[in-house]
Amino acid sequence: MPGAGPARNRRLRALRNAGRFLVVILLTYLGLLAVTFFIGRVMPIDPVLAIVGDRASGELVARVREEMGFNKPLYEQFVIYIGKILRGDFGTSVLSSHPVMDDIRRAFPATLELATLGILIGVGFGVPLGVWAAVRQGRWVDQIVRVMGLIGYSVPIFWLGLMALVLFYARLGWVGGPGRVDVVYEYTLANVSGLLLLDAAMAGQWDAFANVLSHLILPASLLGYFSLAYISRMTRSFMLHELSQEYVVAARAKGLSEARIIWRHALRNAMVPLVTVITLSYAGLLEGSVLTEAVFAWPGLGLYITNSLQNADMNAVLGGTIAVGSVYIGLNLLSDVLYRTLDPRTRSR
Description:
The chain is mainly alpha-helical. It contains 15 helices and no strands. The model has no long low-confidence stretch (mean pLDDT 82).
């Protein structure tokens, strides 16, 4: 049949692309597991002593080491480690005495809520500012946006967080303090999804909603500002490239309005690479909010990993690291899929 050959070639090409995509996922995740495994082995922290204590007898230490499989060859330990991870068994936390997976399920929604509001702030302000700076290249608007981005890259987030707490919480009282919610709502607000804003809205507890938002807005704004600095700079760069293209000159020659050229045509084309930037920025907020969570005593995954590391709880540290790495890998792959979806030219590669 006419056309059968090209259709078969397209299907074969799609299968090859899917196969390569799957291999990349498997190899990346295997690399993540290998890195976390060997980090756990080279760290100057003995997980056995963390469990039994420094004063345990040598016989007890040897027995526990054998029970945990640390007396086996390294390659055999790695195979056992992969098997446990694939079953979702990250071990038991020494600090909480709970399975690490349960602790991650409790801590991750707090980080997810914080990072999601942060990326919404970053995109909501960063994209328009980047477009504005590109359109007004070299003028005072452009200079202000570039200085904002430079400050966002240069100022340590822990210092900015402390100063923000002193000013907006301690001095002005405009926002809530450290933590996710005041104690008065901690036991009355039903924690269903782990996202307290959503839970409060679904339960109709608007006083609790306002309290949660007052605690969330300051750390989320700080994360949003740091993502804004990167997103605005990249938006400006992409828009400058698009505004110099021939189709923009042709659109102006046809008499199209400047607003339509900028927002309907140039920004639409700039959004193709910008989606990847936004997705990876979101991944960065999910895995890089450790300092923010520490400053604001935010009970998320970053604070959980930090506290576990300070208490030599290696099961929790490695489990949290794998969770963060898995999220980053997933969002990285999502950005690749979105890029291929938005840019038809990449589908035939």
